[in-house]
Amino acid sequence: MDTEQKEISNDFKKKVSEWIALDDKIKDLVKEVKECKEQKKQIENTILQNMDNLNLVILDIGNGKIRKNISKTKGALKEETIKDSLFQIFKDDNQASTTTQLILDSRPIVETTRLKRTYKRTN
Q1: Contact (Cβ atoms closer than 8 angstroms) between residue 62 and residue 55
Q2: Which domain holds residue 48?
Q3: Are 12 and 26 part of one and the same domain?
């Protein structure tokens, strides 16, 4: 039984080492992707300005097209926005506040469990 316990322990250590190696790799890749996205965004702004100057919506690039796409999204619901909207309906600040709180309190709470890696501070 002692050797079985040792095997489990070694397997566990191996899994932790693998997880750390993957975590390091992901961290490096995320940093590289972030840098690429920043460069792409700068170039994108230049291309958009040129397309505006040339009154282009679609740009043929040989193996496809680049399309100027405009999308609109609504912002996140905020407590103040909900309360103001309910006040317009109820014309009663107390009822709007109570209803707003009821809406906020009834939102489901989603709980997830993950590993989080921390680093020792170097001073």
Answers
A1: no
A2: 1-71
A3: yes
pLDDT tens-digit profile of 9-28?
888 989 999 999 999 999 99
Domain boundary among 25, 53, 71: 71
- 45-96 residue pLDDT tens: 999 999 999 999 998 898 999 999 889 999 888 999 999 999 999 999 999 9
Look at residue 26 and give its three-state secondary structure: helix
Query: Among residues 71, 98, 117, which one ends one of the domains?
Result: 71
Q: Which residues, 6 or more positions from 64, have their beta carbon under 8 angstroms from its beta carbon?
A: none
Q: Is 87 exposed, middle or buried (0-12, 13-18, 19+ CB in 10 A)?
A: middle
- What local confidence, expressed as pLDDT, does residue 3 receive? 54
Q: How many domains does the chain have?
A: 2
